[in-house]
Amino acid sequence: MKVLLLEDDLALSDILQDHLIHKKIDVTLCNNGQEALEYLVEEVFDFAILDINTPIVSGLKVLKIIRSEYKITIPIIIITAYHDTKYLKEAFENQVDDYIKKPFDLEELDQRINKLCRHFSIEQKDIIKIDNIFFTPYECELVINNKRVFIAKKERDILKYFITHKNRVISSEELLQNIWQYSEQPSDATIRVYIKNLRELLGKDRIITIRSLGYKFEQK
């Protein structure tokens, strides 16, 4: 897993970074919100942990910008020392996924991360069932009619994203922002090829094209 950690308290950031690395998580550490914002726009992360009050740009402002301007939907946990619920309310209005109040135990952080991993199928070896098809994201594998089929990593990432956001319209821009790094973004034609390949495996009616808007993955 790859996580962006925004924390300006040097002692706490060292503790959190060491703990996450021990858990075999790849950590990109930022001490101010501007740096975090640049990383989030340029690179792809599985999730982010943002302190709400940080220099230059606050973690709350980072959350607002990536959600409203860049349409980045990766899971985000905020860390806050505030007891005033105003900031917490504002964070949830800007689509934060979870929060931790300081001081907190590292075990609580682990449980919050585990919750996100389960909900968003992040680096999970669990099998996802799509009607009569079994999808193992970790191994880029589909089992269709008892036959194993391996798909490309980007096809895996697209399928995971569709499943996580099933039954709503996903634009090509949203896929680009959440799956590809800024320096490697493909053309719309490349995305269409990946989706065409997935349709051939899953069935043509599984991923619906919504003209001029994007795609919708339909699942009950």
Produce the secondary structure layout.
Elements (H helix, E strand, L loop, with lengths): L1 E5 L3 H13 L3 E5 L2 H10 L4 E5 L7 H10 L7 E5 L4 H9 L4 E4 L4 H15 L7 E3 L2 E4 L4 E4 L2 E4 L2 H12 L4 E2 L1 H8 L8 H15 L4 E4 L3 E4 L3
Parallel strand pairs: 1-2, 1-3, 3-4, 4-5
Antiparallel strand pairs: 6-7, 7-8, 8-9, 10-12, 11-12
Report on the architecture of this protein:
With 220 residues, the chain is an alpha/beta fold. 42% of the residues lie in helices and 22% in strands. The protein has helices spanning 10-22, 33-42, 59-68, 85-93, 106-120, 153-164, 172-179, 188-202; strands at residues 2-6, 26-30, 47-51, 76-80, 98-101, 128-130, 133-136, 141-144, 147-150, 169-170, 207-210, 214-217. The protein has a 5-stranded parallel sheet with strand order 2-1-3-4-5, sandwiched between helices. Strand 4, helix 4 and strand 5 form a beta-alpha-beta unit. Helix 2 runs parallel beside helix 3 and helix 6 crosses helix 8.
